């Protein structure tokens, strides 16, 4: 941690600051420049918050040197995490394709879709039972009944299930779920994250719409700090000034995360763009950029979907996408 | 609602679309242009979701004409809502100043601060007991004990209490709280919003860091649709490319909201900027722009605050700010 | 300047780095931590670019400590600059109101508008002769003829003229212009800025749509470094995710700039919001926040304006706005 | 174009509006709803600006239905444009790799780099002679001398030259340049774009940091409307809230542009990220997403580069990247 003092700071005030810092158990190293005095801190700075130091009058600003996340940090855990979910591996060279409808709507819809996904090479079934919707007047999912239908589809196909949890009270229905998805809007629902740290299922943590990569890793850290280290990160588009597509798919975050964390990272081009026609080329790019998996919305009849039809592709289109995804996985040395 | 068809749409396909729309209970009016066909919808379009229509092959895009929020809409409720919280009114010409520390830390701290706030003319005491923190390793508030200390300060000063709720399980401790604050990160925690609609306390709904004004009103709509119409909106800065201050304080949203909703709107320059030195001038601007109130962080000793010290002002600075706020309230015809 | 070395950096590599830095004429102070080595630089670091140091293999990143702008920096020039433009002062307690139509359209239009602006208390006439337009098919202004009409209006009213320059070749027509405006899209047209540094007229430098405050000050520095220190900054809205209004009016930048630079800063609520109905309240807020002036679009008949009618207010509305602006100027101790 | 009238609009006012519109040569079709009246316009709406209509009192807002760009529009020019630059083709299945240093620094530097680029399979030499720099105190390029050195490298290798033009006055030195690059900061320098429309060299138009895809196409339209249809678009990162990398590389814009325009589109991962370590994986993703080319910064000794060293890769790293780029080009059916 580095502290930059104001030009107006007096020698005595700087001495006071050094004193305060020493008392906090770190070793301050002042460097006296012509216009500013800089104080470098050595030792365990993890309990010193930048904002607290910034509240001190003579401090102009504070810059952190080390990352605030530890359990998720590749520096301290150089080996890639491989998550095992319902017998299927993600990360460390294993590529996951999680596909399925935005919402579970009926037994026929979910079972038929699951079969086709499996036939095309998908290895997870995704589907929403509890649905976060911007409007209180929109369809909010079949809830517990939706989970039951997902289980039927799992029984038929053997595909492990990925589905979203919106509130800890619903956890009772998630016994047969293989991966619990936390949606973008709940990425900083810290109470929920803390509780998820206590459950023993892999967590798929979607990036918040306007959250930095560091905040995202801090949310993963929340889950890990409570005891659950099976976290999968999922990029699903960030909010920017560009509105031609629903969001801006931040593919660069994937190779960057590779240098920051050992956790697996997947990409979701369906939600990122909101447009079915973008899914094919962006799925290929997601493999090319080094992701550990893909999440793709597939619906037997997108025109009649109860939610997010505009971004769903048909099982036939999915089959076509998978043919290319497989070719790219071979080039990238990924097992699918 | 307006539907724009693709150039490639055939006459028969457009007829099919008109048929589908009629079946949904709305009246479609097609306009045939040279390059596009446009379909205007008349009638109750509230149950038709743009994204569902956009999933139809021949549809290029869909534009909504009416706002998706109804209970919060000024069109249908032209009279300004006046919220009564613990005997103090907000909105409709009544100006609220909610002041206090980011975190409740001790009895002395909160009671002394409350007394000074009251003496300077503040009419609400704010203070955090349950604290959302980006890092799992940071101080997360005194929790239930913090609420008890807030109640002591209320007993001493008579100031109604505003404090944040992070999870519905904590509601049991909020009996003596006057206004429940929902933080920016929970603005789209729909399960929580739905539950809050069932409680009979005013809700202060902070705008999410990257949420549009429309999404914000839809979250208010969630609370209102469940039965609680006492919602106060609070602008607290949005996330943009500019990082010179913590966030960008979107003051323009206040006069704009005035034309969209009857709900009271307040501004929080402390959180929006993260810098104590910005609070004075932005507080004045918040009054000037027509807000119904202010939220300001005040701490007896910002340098020793356990959270967000950098943005807190001292009680002395608060007194100075209030002198100007009062002058501006007179110019604006607000009762403080 | 502070250099943070990678964890993997070897002692010999760090010695090489220190050597390189010493040769560049600065004094490096290494601080050896457990996980990182930090090097603080003392001396004249103005010629060392962060990005060059970051290219060195063992360097993780580089953080600047001092601002990269000097002539515009309040640290080195603590007295507020007062710009004199055509006999009217801006800055240092003098408040400027620059009003007029987006485009000059006819003699009658501009002369009548100028008279009304003067009568209401405006002290500058603004009007576009050379117009930047997003579409090559839109009206691009009356050009040299527009400037002639502005001069007529100036003769009639005595109001100094503010108008935009789009290319240095047009400077020949600007002899009687009092303030040269550089539009948001040209804020980083460095060739143009360098040339403007050689002319002896005040420059009104609008902030680019997505430019940081620091970049904006660096553009002012370009003009100043070439010899012209009469620069007025103008905030006109930044581009963010929020699209309810044309841009997000970043009012917080005004008190922040006050602490960074001695140059006058004005605000333009008309362009920032694109909506006439927002101008009144945001004009008041601009005064409240401490600006040195306002730019407001006024058109005798906004519905028939050839450009940007939606954001123009009528002379009658302007008169009403000015009544409040004057009251706020008195509260703020500004001379108008 | 669709006009949405305010709820308060009276029948007579709507009749007036229809009259005005008819006089402008378009055919208005009113649809009377319960809460709003919508007017659809049929006919040539290209001369009607949305903002002018929005200035009319009873108008709530205006939504465009057709794109405002015509020459760049794939609807009217369904065949992909293939640009021929110095004998090398770009677009329509031909893949371009433009590589070279940020700045031309010396004969040896540029000639040696060019030879290695050619050997690795690059087919264009890029290098900056006129350099836009944020600071007036930074190195601004060798200017005319830099162009002379580029020509030497071209003579030695046969690689066509791509280099940036910052002001129309410099065009005199560009006789032997094969592709004129317009930088992000000049994307809306409309005077410059208009002049470039009159020259007969291909223009590489970089996307502005905060410009929408539509604005970008409108800038291409400016060049094309003045007579030059050889425009190549180049995505180089947009400015968002995320600062972990220099910009956010908007790869989704490439498949989207494919549906909007017939112009070739390339990607520049070096500038987009500012980090050499990101170039490899993002280059592959750029091919995967369907781009017509890549721009990559290559410098023989990034640590000693006079500008942007942190984002340059060595010729050896470039050779490694090209091996993968070629494999991906084969999968995508691109000729390189």
Q: Using the coordinates shown, work out and report the CATH topology of the largest domain in chain A.
A: TIM Barrel
Total count of strands of chain A: 14
pLDDT averaged over residues of chain A? 93
Count of spatially separate domains of chain A: 2
Q: What sort of overall outline of chain A do the alpha carbons produce when their principal axes are compared?
A: elongated
CATH superfamily of the largest domain in chain A: Aldolase class I
DSSP helix count of chain A? 10
Q: Please summarize the sheet with the most strands of chain A.
A: 8 strands, parallel, barrel
CATH class of the largest domain in chain A: Alpha Beta
Order of strands across the main sheet of chain A: 7-8-9-10-11-12-13-14
Overall radius of gyration of chain A? 23 Å
Question: What fraction of residues of chain A sit in β-strands?
Answer: 15-25%
Structural class based on helices, strands and sheet pairing of chain A: alpha/beta
Q: What is the element string of chain A, with H for helices and E for strands?
A: EHEEHEEEEHEHEEHEHEHEHHEH
Distance between the termini of chain A: 43 Å
CATH architectural group of the largest domain in chain A: Alpha-Beta Barrel
Q: Percent of residues of chain A in helical segments?
A: 25-40%
Considering residues with a beta carbon less than 8 A from a beta carbon on another chain, report the largest interface and each chain's count. Answer: A-B, 51 and 50 residues
Quaternary organization: homotetramer
Low-pLDDT regions of chain A: none
């Amino acid at each position: 941690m580095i502290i930059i003092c104001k030009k107006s700071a007096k020698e005595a005030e700087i001495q006071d600051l050094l004193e305060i810092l020493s008392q906090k158990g770190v070793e301050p190293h002042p460097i006296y420049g012509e216009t500013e005095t800089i104080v470098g801190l050595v030792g365990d700075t993890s309990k010193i918050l930048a904002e607290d130091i910034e509240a001190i009058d003579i401090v102009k600003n504070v810059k952190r040197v080390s990352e605030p996340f530890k359990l998720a940090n590749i520096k301290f855990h150089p080996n890639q995490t491989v998550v095992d979910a319902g017998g299927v591996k993600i990360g460390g060279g294993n590529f996951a394709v999680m596909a399925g409808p935005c919402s579970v709507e009926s037994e026929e819809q979910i079972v038929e879709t699951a079969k086709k996904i499996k036939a095309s090479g998908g290895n997870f079934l995704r589907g929403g039972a509890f649905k976060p919707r911007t409007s209180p007047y929109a369809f909010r999912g079949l809830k517990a009944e939706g989970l039951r239908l997902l289980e039927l589809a799992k029984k038929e196909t053997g595909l492990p299930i990925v589905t979203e949890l919106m509130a800890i009270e619903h956890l009772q229905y998630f016994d047969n779920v293989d991966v619990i998805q936390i949606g973008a809007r709940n990425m900083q629902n810290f109470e929920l994250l803390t509780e998820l740290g206590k459950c023993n299922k892999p967590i798929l943590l979607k990036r918040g719409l306007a959250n930095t990569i560091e905040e995202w890793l801090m949310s993963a850290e929340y889950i890990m700090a409570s005891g659950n280290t099976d976290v999968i990160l999922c990029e699903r588009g960030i909010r920017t000034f560009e509105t031609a597509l629903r969001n801006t798919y931040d593919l660069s975050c994937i190779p960057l995360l590779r240098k920051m964390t050992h956790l697996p990272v997947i990409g979701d081009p369906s939600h990122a763009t909101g447009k079915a026609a973008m899914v094919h080329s962006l799925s290929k790019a997601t493999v090319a950029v080094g992701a550990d998996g893909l999440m793709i919305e597939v619906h037997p009849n997108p025109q009649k979907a109860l939610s997010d039809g505009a971004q769903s592709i048909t099982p036939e289109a999915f089959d076509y996408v998978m043919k290319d995804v497989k070719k790219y996985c071979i080039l990238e040395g990924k097992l699918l």
